Each structure stands twice: as structure tokens, then as C-alpha cells.
Amino acid sequence: MKYAADFRSIARESLRGKWLFAVAAGLVAVLLGGIGSDGPEIKFHIDASGASASLELAGQNIYSTSKGFGPELSAFLIGGAVYLVIAAIVFAVVYFILGSIIGVGYARFNLRMVDQENPAFDVLFAYFPYWKTMAVARFLQSLYILLWSLLLIIPGIIATYSYAMTEFILAEQPELTASEAIARSKELMTGNRWRLFCLHFSFIGWYILCMFTLGIGNLWLNPYIQTATAAFYREISGPVPEISYL
To answer: In terms of residue numbers, what domain contains 124?
Structure first.
């Protein structure tokens, strides 16, 4: 049985000579909502003094109309607030679906790294034909985790780790339904949740160091963690399937 140090070692070996490529793929996955990002947000502030807007990404303010809009545009925005809300909802749904697809594509990317293949960048976008399954799977995971979290924090954490392998499973078996993939993840993670938690916790020192780099270090840390997690999946799921879907 492998331990956290073993998975980290496999990840480093898999990333050897491919770090810049992995960093670029990880950055795209983050920006498009595949992992660890709520995506770009456009925020409007409307009050009696007028209206202003800001663009935020990963919690950082990218651009803002600090001086506000002119009175004519402010009046237009106030009158069209309903349309802005509808546009924001549509944007959120589209981004959620896109992130679901990219998340599975990024899981496939990391599995190919672990399998010592040469993953093509376009594998991130390879699962568009299965967009409904990917979106439903992510929605159900989020819903189940939320419901378990309403009980107590611990059940929510357990649920998070129970469903953690869903994207890897769909990356190799996209013909499964969302419920089947989630059930398969729960089956694989029975007795392995603590092991995955220990693996993720073993990166705590790197997380702390990244805080002193203003987050820039996360560009390298995220691929490291994701590749180690892919190695973990490969160990608990068995050998590479004979049939490769993508």
C-alpha cells in the first residue's frame, strides 16, 4: 500500500520535464472553472448616487469603474436591473457547465501524466459531447455535500472525500451516468477517505509557503496536488483500462 510520500514522489516523477506545460494546463483549468475557482465575476453597485461595476477573478479585483458611470448609463442600468440579473444567471449556468467539462478533462490530463503518456492540451476540452453528464455529476456532488454539511462539518468533509474520484471515473468511463460515477467513487473511497485526506494534508507546508508568494506559488502547487491525486486514483482503481475512450 502506498502512502502520501509515495504519491508525491510519483507526481514529481510524472511532472519531470513537463512542469511548464502542467502549469499552463492547470491555469487554464482554474480560469475556466475546472478546479478551485468560482470564475470571473461582474459586480454592479447601484445606489442613489449612481452605478458602478467591477470585474473580479479568484477574489481579486481586476478592473473597476471607481468613478462610477455617467448619469445616463446609471439610469439605464437601474432600469435594466432585471435583465442584468438574468444575464448574470445565464453566465453562471454556462460557466458551471464549462467548468464541469474542463474538470473532467483536467482529470484525464493528470491521469495521462501519471501513466507516462504525453497529454495533449486539447484533452481539457475533449468531453463536450458528454456535457450533460459532467454537469449533472458536478451538480449532484455539490448538492450532496451541501446537504451533508447542513448536518455537521464532519459529514460534509466525509462526503467531499467520498465523491472525490468522480471526475477521474468519468474521465475514463464517460458513458456512465452521473449517479453511477458518484456511486463508483463512494465504493472506491470506502476505507480510503482518510488516506486521501492525509495526502492532501501533507501539502500543508507548501500551502503556507505559497502564501508568501502572493499566490503565485499555487501555479506550481496545484499541478503537483492534482497529479498526486491522479496517482492516488490510479492506485485504488487498479491498472489502466484496456479500452481508452479519449
So the answer is: 4-37+101-237
What domain count does the chain have? 1
Which residue in the block uniquely carries the three cell numbers 482554474?
A: 30
pLDDT, one tens digit per residue, over 122-155 is 899 999 999 999 999 999 999 998 898 888 788 8
Query: Does 50 reside within a domain?
Result: no
Whole-prediction pTM:
0.79
**Residues 168-184: tens digit of each pLDDT:** 999 999 999 999 999 99
Contact predicate 237/168, CB 8 Å:
yes
Query: Per the domain annotation, does 154 fall within a domain?
Result: yes
Identify the residue whose cell numbers are 446609471. Answer: 74
**Do the domain assignments include residue 63?**
no
Gyration radius (Cα) of the chain, Å:
20
DSSP the chain: ---HHHHHHHHHHHHTTTHHHHHHHHHHHHHTTSSS---EEEEEEEETTEEEEEEEETTEEEEE-TT---HHHHHHHHHTHHHHHHHHHHHHHHHHHHHHHHHHHHHHHHHHHHTT----GGGGGTTGGGHHHHHHHHHHHHHHHHHHHHH-HHHHHHHHHHTTTHHHHHHH-TTS-HHHHHHHHHHHHTTTHHHHHHHHHTTHHHHHHHHTTTTTTHHHHHHHHHHHHHHHHHHHH-SPPSS---
- Please indicate, yes or no, if residue 185 is contained in any of the structural domains: yes
180 has which bridge partners? none
51-72: buried (b, 16+ CB within 10 Å) or exposed (e) per residue?
A: bbbeebeeeeeeeeeeebbeee
* Residues 196 and 229 sit within 8 Å (Cβ to Cβ): yes
